[in-house]
């Protein structure tokens, strides 16, 4: 169907999820409406989401999945109640919502979560950071962060990408003093890493000479090089001997590195218990 000169796609029956959703979402965002004929709220939401799909004119596409007919897919995606909307992009769920919303709120929800070039760039950068490729993440984020310093999420992400190669620059991006706001935790992560990296750049001049200092600086060198397993082994060994080493910065930096990777990252999960034992967390 052509809407405003652009092809409008809506699949309502016999959904081939791999082709109609996963593969298609590589080209355009796909909104999946999980519904059933007996569901009262579905009857309210359905016409609204179909109208918005037509108005979108191909900016995103709609697939309506009858959970009675394709219960296996509903189970696969953990659908516990309907209606349920899931927005797919590049094969992944990027947003989801349960229940029915009035048209203005639904329109706003879709607009909020639709991918944009900036959001795409940020998503790619997050994945690169998770895999220890901060330099590549920085190359993606630096141009858009320079053009938009008002986006605190973007600034915090750009600082995370920069902290491994230029900690002082990353610290300047987020500011040295704690603030408030939804992205403050990300900024504090950057501050924690930047502090210890600057200490290492100065050769640990603020630390008393000891074998522990040398091991600590070696672990920080591994951390800065994104050799995370080796870095965690070194930091945890230091913390086992002295949990408050470097005025507590060793502990906060190790925890920040876990959060940088993600608390469910396999490397984080492999070392978190040992960290907790060493620091009594």
Radius of gyration using CA atoms only:
24 Å
CATH class call of the domain at 2-114: Alpha Beta
Largest sheet: 5 strands, mixed
Q: Helix and strand succession?
A: EEEHEHEHEEHHHHHHHHHH
CATH domain topology of the domain at 2-114: Glutaredoxin
What count of helical segments does DSSP give?
13
- CATH homologous superfamily name of the domain at 2-114? Glutaredoxin
Intertermini distance = 59 Å
Q: Tell me roughly what share of residues is in helical segments.
A: 55-70%
Shape: elongated
Give the number of DSSP strands: 7
The overall pLDDT average reads 89
Strand order of the biggest β-sheet? 3-5-4-6-7
Class from secondary-structure proportions: alpha/beta
Please explain how this structure is put together.
The protein is of the alpha/beta class. The protein has a domain at about 1-115: Glutaredoxin, CATH 3.40.30. The chain is built from 13 helices and seven strands. It has helices spanning about 15-25, 40-55, 70-75, 105-115, 115-130, 135-145, 150-160, 165-175, 185-200, 210-225, 230-240, 250-260, 265-280, and strands at about 1-5, 5, 10, 30-35, 60-65, 85-90, 90-100. The strands form two sheets. It has a five-stranded mixed sheet with strand order 3-5-4-6-7, sandwiched between helices. Strand 1 (about 1-5) and strand 2 (about 5) form a beta hairpin. The longest helix is centred in the C-terminal third of the chain and has 18 residues, at about 185-200. It is elongated and about 75 Å long. The termini are far apart. GO terms for molecular function: protein-disulfide reductase activity. InterPro entries: Thioredoxin (IPR005746), Thioredoxin-like_sf (IPR036249), Thioredoxin_CS (IPR017937), Thioredoxin_domain (IPR013766), TPR-like_helical_dom_sf (IPR011990). Keywords: Disulfide bond, Electron transport, Redox-active center, Transport. One of its GO terms (biological process) is response to stress.
């Amino acid at each position: 169907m052509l809407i405003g000169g652009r092809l409008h796609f809506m699949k309502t029956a016999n959904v081939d999820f791999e082709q109609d959703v996963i593969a298609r979402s590589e080209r355009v965002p796909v909104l999946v409406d999980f519904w059933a004929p007996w569901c009262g709220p579905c009857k309210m939401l359905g016409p609204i989401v179909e109208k918005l799909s037509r108005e979108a004119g191909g900016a995103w596409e709609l697939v309506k999945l009858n959970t009675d007919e394709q219960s296996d897919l509903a189970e696969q995606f953990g659908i516990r109640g309907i209606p349920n909307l899931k927005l797919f992009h590049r094969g992944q769920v990027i947003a989801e919502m349960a229940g029915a919303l009035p048209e203005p709120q639904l329109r706003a929800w879709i607009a909020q979560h639709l991918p944009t070039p900036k959001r795409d760039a940020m998503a790619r950068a997050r994945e690169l950071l998770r895999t220890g490729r901060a330099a590549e993440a920085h190359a993606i984020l630096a141009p858009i962060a320079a053009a938009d310093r008002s986006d605190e999420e973007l600034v915090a992400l750009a600082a995370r990408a920069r902290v491994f190669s230029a900690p002082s620059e990353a610290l300047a991006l987020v500011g040295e003093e704690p603030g408030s706001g939804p992205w403050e935790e990300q900024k504090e992560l950057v501050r924690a890493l930047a502090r210890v990296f600057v200490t290492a750049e100065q050769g640990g001049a603020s630390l008393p000479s000891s074998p522990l200092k040398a091991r600590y600086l070696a672990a920080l060198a591994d951390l800065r090089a994104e050799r995370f397993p080796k870095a965690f082994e070194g930091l945890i060994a230091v913390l086992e001997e002295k949990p408050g080493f470097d005025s507590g910065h060793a502990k906060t930096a190790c925890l920040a590195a876990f959060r940088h990777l993600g608390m469910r990252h396999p490397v984080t999960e492999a070392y978190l218990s040992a960290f907790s034992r060493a620091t009594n967390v």
